[in-house]
Design brief:
The chain is of the alpha+beta class. Helices cover 30% and strands 23% of the residues. The chain has a single domain, classed as Glutaredoxin (3-Layer(aba) Sandwich). The chain has an eight-stranded mixed beta sheet, with helices on both faces. Strands 1-2 form a two-stranded antiparallel ribbon. A two-stranded antiparallel ribbon has the order 9-10. The N terminus is likely disordered. Belongs to the SCO1/2 family.
Length: 206
């Protein structure tokens, strides 16, 4: 497995959950032959949060019920992992049949609330397509959400210019229409493989 899965730039996440790491390394999540992503059904809690969207409005997980959702933690100043992942997800959703495109939603959660204002977050997610929502919150809210999905994030010391790097996981969590956690997408998965899984989830709930 590529070390970049748990790295932002070259910095590892020393406090990342040992449980999740061991599961990913050993394949303990299981991987049904029908799925390209890791099958996490029954191993992660349902989609639930109370955050703020890129319009500055409070939102909860239930506000986006009825669609297959992909949850991804990141930040707008991310130099590589975030734009690469969001470009791939936009490629995937754009390649779906027109009648299926609105059935999938990407939830991009910024873990850098100090810099990622609603306006900045809105400009960022708009660049990556229509079916993506920018979310953020207070650091305690974000810590609670990250813990819920057995991951974490961290901040480097600011440089002379005040800028700093943010360490975070590159995992993408996929939830079905009912909000149940179903799949974990890793960076190495091809766009067509992700597309296959999304179409399968859409069709099983149709």
């Amino acid at each position: 497995m590529s070390a970049r899965f748990w790295r932002q730039r070259t910095k590892a996440l020393p406090s990342i959950s040992v449980l999740v790491m061991s599961m990913l390394l050993t394949g303990c999540f299981g991987n049904d032959e029908d799925w390209h992503g890791k099958n996490i059904s029954g191993l992660m809690p349902e989609l639930e949060f109370d955050l703020m969207n890129s319009q500055g409005e409070p939102v909860s997980g239930s506000d986006y019920d009825g669609r297959v959702r992909m949850l991804f933690f990141g930040f707008t100043s991310c130099p590589d992992v975030c734009p690469t992942a969001l470009q791939k997800l936009n490629q995937v959703t754009s390649s779906l049949a027109p009648e299926l495109q609105d059935e999938v939603l990407t939830l991009f959660v910024s873990v850098d609330p100090q810099r990622d204002t609603p306006e900045r977050l809105a400009n960022y997610v708009d660049f990556f397509g229509d079916n993506i929502v920018g979310l953020t919150g207070t650091e305690p809210q974000l810590r609670e959400l990250a813990k819920r999905y057995r991951t974490t994030f961290g901040y480097d010391e600011p440089g002379p210019d005040g800028n700093y790097a943010v360490s975070h996981s590159s995992a993408i969590y996929v939830f079905d229409r009912d909000g149940s956690a179903r799949l974990l997408i890793r960076p190495g998965l091809k766009a067509e493989e992700i597309r296959h899984d999304l179409v399968a989830l859409i069709q099983e709930d149709s």
